[in-house]
Each structure stands twice: as C-alpha cells, then as structure tokens.
Specification:
alpha/beta; Spore Coat Polysaccharide Biosynthesis Protein SpsA, Chain A; 10-stranded mixed sheet; 9 helices; 10 strands; 36% helix
Amino acid sequence: MNSKSIESGGLRNRGLIKKSTDQKPLISIVTVVYNAASTLEATILSTIHQTYENFEYIIVDGGSTDGTLDIIKKYEDRIDYWISEPDKGLYYAMNKGINLANGDWINFMNSGDSFYQNEVLTEMFKQAHQDVDVIYGDVMFSFDGTNAVHVKARTLDYFWKGMPFVHQTSFVRTALMKKHPFDVYYKLIADYSSLYNMYLDGAKFKYLEKIVCNFRAGGLSDNNPESIAECQRMIFVKHRGINVKLYYYKRYVECFVKYNFAKLIGQNNYARLRKIKNK
C-alpha cells in the first residue's frame, strides 16, 4: 500500500446504514489498529459475534503494512465501515472513530483487546439507561495473555488518582464523546482526561457489575513514568491540594522504579512476577 493512499470499505460503502430504534439503541464499536495483524483477528471475532441486534462496527487503521488490511478485508461483510490511511497517532485515530460513529453509544475495543463474552452488549443494554451518560463494568486482566484475573472497577471518588475502570469497559453517549473528544496534547492519557472532564462537568456514570472485556497489560501507558507525568500535568491544573501533589510524586517514583526494573529483567519476566504477586 502506498504510504499516501487511502482505502475504505464495509457495509456503508454499499449503502447499508444502521439506525437506532426505540427498543434497540445503536451501539458503535470502534477498533483502532496499526500493524497489529497478530492480535486484530481476535478483536474482530469478539465483536462481530456479539448477540446484540443493533450495533455498528468501525475499524480505523493507520496505514498498516503488515497484513492487517488482509484481515480487515477478510471480515468486511461484517464490518460497517473501515478506513486505512496514515494518521498522527492513537488518539487522532480514535477521534476519527468518534466522527464516524452514528450510534447512540460508543465503545473503543482496540486491537489486542476483546469482549469477554458474545453476550456482553446484550447484557449491558438489557435495560434502558435513562439519564445516564457513561456506563462501565469490570475487566478480565492479564499480564501475559494467560491466567487472567477479574478486576472490579473502583468507585468514582478514585477518579483524581487515575482511571477507576478500564476504558474498554465503558460505553459513552456518542453526543457527549463528540463534545469531549480525545485531547491529542496527551500521548498516553487522553482517554482518562476525556472521561475525567466529563465527570467534572457533571456527567452521570453508572456501574454495572458485569465483565465487559479481556484486557492485556503492556500497552503504551502501562507502568510508563511518562503516563504518570501526563496525569500530573492534567490533575495539578484541577486540584492544588498538597495531598494530591504528594500522591502523584510518590506514584511517579514508584512507577519509575517499576518501569526501569521491567526493562532490566525483561517484560516477560516482569509479567511473571506480577502474575505471582497477584495470585
């Protein structure tokens, strides 16, 4: 694929546009991917096999050259819209997904993550969520792709310390997401920044005690001191208390030690140690 070319496909290109109904709101599932042929198929399969009767699936690819497009095209009869073109990074691509979404609700299930069961959407939208802006649940978390553990979402009073829940477990009103797109100033925490700003603006969050996704540690922000530094920059603007500053200074030092220890012994060995610790 030429580095400047744009490709697209899916059901929308054939004139098939899904819409919400009174009984079944349309849910937009967005997957952002770049050169992740080894993990994308599992994400796609976990999405297209959802039993919920009214969702659209959008894939935003950053111009992959490793076979990712072949996997997308393999399933394009089940994908509502996909586009592949070079972009400026993760959150630029996710904002593109927001703009492409037609649903009442939007969820980001990026390559490498997957829905926990085929019934997740059905279970999450079994009831109407009147006067709710964000719904979220729990996660099956693993450090090396095996031996996953059930991690419950924290309460919202944790928000100033970090994300109370894994972003992939959340469904946000699309209109609200368009109002609070990802701030591309941040390289690692734009999802946290966006949701926290919604929270501070008075958005209504609702927790459902259901496992939403499988999440594997090791992403860009996992144990990355720069992620904590970005959190500091964001939080210190909003909260000036000494307890907040002390918390983040301590957290940065801990993360810096863990990050460099993982580099020293290798990510696989560090994942095994974390797995043992969490048994």
